[in-house]
Amino acid sequence: MSAPIIMRLMASSISTAKRAGVIIRDVLKKGDLGIVDKGHNDPQTEADRSAQQCIIASLTKKFPTVKIIGEEGCSDLNVCDDWLVTEQDESFLQHNCPAEWQDAKPEDFVIWVDPLDGTAEYTQGFVEHVTVLIGIAVKDAAVGGIIHQPFYKQPDGELGRTIWGLKGVGTGGFTPKAAPAGKFIITTTRSHSNALHQQALNAFPSAEVIKVGGAGFKVLQLLEGKAHAYVFATPGCKKWDTCAPEAVLEAQGGTLTNINGEHYAYNADVEHVNKKGVLASLGQNHSDLVEKIPAEVRQAVGAK
Ligand SMILES: Nc1ncnc2c1ncn2[C@@H]1O[C@H](COP(=O)(O)O)[C@@H](O)[C@H]1OP(=O)(O)O
Ligand SMILES: [Mg+2]
Ligand SMILES: [Mg+2]
Ligand SMILES: [Mg+2]
Fold first, then answer.
1. In CA terms, which of 13, 94, 181, 287 is 20 to 30 Å from 124?
2. In degrees to the nearest 10, what's the CA dihedral of 245, 131, 179, 156?
3. Confidence of residue 74 (pLDDT cuts 50, 70, 90)
4. Alpha-carbon gap, residue 188 to 182, rounded angstroms
5. What's 5-169's CATH class?
6. What is the pLDDT of residues 2-57, one digit of tens each?
7. What residue ranges do the domains of the chain occupy?
8. What is the Å distance from ligand 4's center to 158 Cα?
């Protein structure tokens, strides 16, 4: 008997994210990024388009009745065999399926795909900030996620690593580390700041602030003890930016919410923009962090 669908979705997404990572590296190697501006500070490249095609075509072929939403809109499902991933990560399938999702049906799922998170940084040469994000939601909740880092250098020189998390199972693909005691480090945007966002950061006057690209990479910084909290007090990132990072972070015991401490919903009908920003933490009292940001600042985020 085949494994429950959530386990097969996770195992297939792990293999597919790795293939998308190869596409992203290949586009950069060829050198012509094919940049299109989708809006202010919102570039799209050949790598975003091709990686999304690979992911959506591969997952649709295997799971034709599961709803899949990708950042780059509708994708041509007719892809070359080379982009059609038929494998699934067999080692992931060794885990037991959490009882809660054992009987979940294809129509209960939404897959949120960000084929390349950190596009601005990709075009500017900060390639270590780039991740491929595949998030698995069951009804409203972000439950499973893959964060693949195509340009991560393994100790043996191999490029790329794949981090996964599934609530009720845990995480894999990295070594969790607690952030240093005795100081407070915030990771935040380097390309989408504004005055209101700065006001939220000002609520933590003694914090060290690291500015990096991508929602996936910032959550990796929490997981690897490089920061205590991720603060983004402005609309701009979308459900495909936060679904996978939220699931991985929460499978590791952290929390990812809007700036008011409320979880976003990830069903197929939600508004794509995360209007009330992002606040994520690991090893902290999350509601204390919410309370530190003045209520008037929190109210103003996404108000207009
Ligand atoms: N104003 C915005 N317009 C478009 N995308 C945004 C915006 N703000 C954030 N994002 C998305 O959220 C990610 C995290 O934001 P930041 O790096 O600024 O913290 C970005 O890499 C980008 O995803 P993507 O690169 O996939 O388009
Ligand atoms: Mg984008
Ligand atoms: Mg993104
Ligand atoms: Mg993207």
1. 13
2. 130
3. confident
4. 20
5. alpha beta
6. 899 999 999 999 999 999 999 999 999 999 999 999 999 899 999 999 999 999 99
7. 5-169, 185-300
8. 24
Tokens of 177: 């580390």
End-to-end CA distance of the chain, in Å?
Answer: 52
Q: How far apart are CA 92 and CA 89, in angstroms?
A: 6
Q: What whole-number distance in Å separates Cα of residue 282 and Cα of residue 287? A: 12
Q: Calculate the alpha carbon distances from 262 to 142, 265, 276, 287, 293 in Å.
A: 13, 9, 9, 10, 14
Q: What CA–CA distances, in Å, run from 208 to 182, 188, 211, 232?
A: 12, 11, 10, 15
Rounded Cα distance, 61 and 276, in Å: 35
Residue 142 token pair: 């972000």
Index of the ligand 1 atom closest to the CA of residue 48: 26
As a whole number of angstroms, the distance between CA 295 and CA 280 comes to 17
Residue appearing with tokens 């998170």: 117
Q: Is 214 in the pocket of ligand 1 (CB under 6 A)?
A: yes
CA of 126 to the centre of ligand 1 (A): 14
Which amino acid, residue 266?
Y
Which pair of tokens denotes residue 209?
A: 């602030």
> Per the structure block, which two tokens stand in for 6?
């959530």
Closest atom of ligand 1 to CA, residue 44: 27
pTM of the predicted structure, to 2 decimals: 0.98
Q: How confident is the model at residue 75 (pLDDT cuts 50, 70, 90)?
A: confident
Fold of 185-300: D-Maltodextrin-Binding Protein; domain 2 (3.40.190)
